[in-house]
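Project outcomes to date are best conveyed with an example. Our students and postdoctoral researchers have been running inverse folding experiments weekly, and each run begins with a structure described purely in tokens. The record below, which covers 123 residues, was selected by the lab manager from last quarter's runs and is presented without edits.
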């Protein structure tokens, strides 16, 4: 059973940066595409970014394009989400998820989920 653990969340001022990590506890991590999702209070969980199993392709939600960068290090079984120019609207619990097949921002396509990490953007 693939297990995912997110870390790196916290409180940051508007305009600041954070780097989230998603660590997987299983061999053959490099066969899974990984997605980052977020859920703000009272809102649906939405796709933020995704990356293919090899790291060769990625995709972003329009709301984060140019500010967030996804990457992965398969030797460390870890995917990262670098978040720059953070805005209060980015406040949410961030989740990573894994699936076999291409990366996608569609939540229901993912089978494995982490527990989430809180990101709060506030002055």
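After processing, the design step wrote out the following sequence:
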């Amino acid at each position: 059973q693939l297990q995912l653990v997110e870390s790196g969340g916290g409180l940051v001022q508007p305009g600041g940066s954070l780097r989230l990590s998603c660590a997987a506890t299983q061999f053959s991590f490099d066969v899974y595409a990984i997605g980052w999702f977020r859920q703000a209070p009272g809102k649906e969980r939405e796709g933020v970014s995704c990356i293919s199993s090899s790291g060769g392709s990625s995709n972003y939600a329009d709301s984060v394009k140019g500010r967030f960068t996804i990457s992965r290090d398969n030797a460390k079984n870890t995917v990262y989400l670098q978040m720059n120019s953070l805005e209060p609207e980015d406040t949410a619990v961030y989740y990573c998820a894994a699936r076999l097949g291409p990366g996608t921002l569609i939540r229901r396509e993912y089978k494995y989920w982490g527990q989430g990490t809180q990101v709060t953007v506030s002055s």
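The two ends are 40 Å apart (CA to CA). The CA atoms of residues 35 and 102 lie 10 Å apart. The training component of this project remains on track.
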